[in-house]
Amino acid sequence: MNRTNTIRNLLLSLLLAASAFAAPAYAQISVSINIAPPAPEYEVVPIIQPGYVWAPGYWGWNGERHVWVRGRAIVQREGYRWEPDRWEQRDRSYVRAEGHWVRDKGYKPVKVKKEKKQKKQKGHDNGGKHGRGD
After folding, report:
1. How many structural domains compose the chain?
2. Considering only CA atoms, which of 61, 126, 119, 120 is closest in space to residue 95?
3. Is the pTM of this model over 0.90?
4. pLDDT score, position 71
5. 8 A C-beta contact, residue 99 and residue 81
6. 17 is a domain residue
């Protein structure tokens, strides 16, 4: 086997191994239980800095019972709104729908006006003499 084939096989093996580690990132876990979640807890929404939005808290499932997951500030996506986590009833069970971004149909981008630079007016330049009357 020549050197080029060896390097190509090595790179292909590394690429294949790397993709095996990346694949689980796309997996989604669906939780279906027969116990309805409690009513949402009241949370005081803190002041959020510009560029962030509030993702409200929700009831998660730890395998035995519902646990409250506190709300959090998340980076805003322009033109989208945050659809919060929620539980949906399907037949006799409850399925958690994860929070996600939804395109905001009513979104209108904010136009920021740029200030125009003021031009120097002719005849008002004192030639650098700073008003000393020289």
Report:
1. 1
2. 61
3. no
4. 96
5. no
6. no
pLDDT digits (tens, 9 = 90+) for 45-98: 999 999 999 999 999 999 899 999 999 999 999 999 999 999 999 988 999 999
CA 32/CA 52 separation, integer angstroms: 31
Domain residues for the domain of 73 are 31-103
Residue 73 lies in a domain: yes
Question: What SS3 class is residue 17?
Answer: helix
SS3 61: strand
Q: How far is residue 41's CA from residue 49's CA, in Å, rounded to a whole number?
A: 23
Strands 100-103 and 32-33: unpaired
Q: Is residue 124 part of a domain?
A: no
Domain assignment present for residue 39? The answer is yes
> What is the number of other CB atoms lying within 10 angstroms of the CB of residue 102?
11
Torsion angle defined by CA atoms of residues 94, 96, 97 and 98, in that order, rounded to the nearest 10 degrees: 170
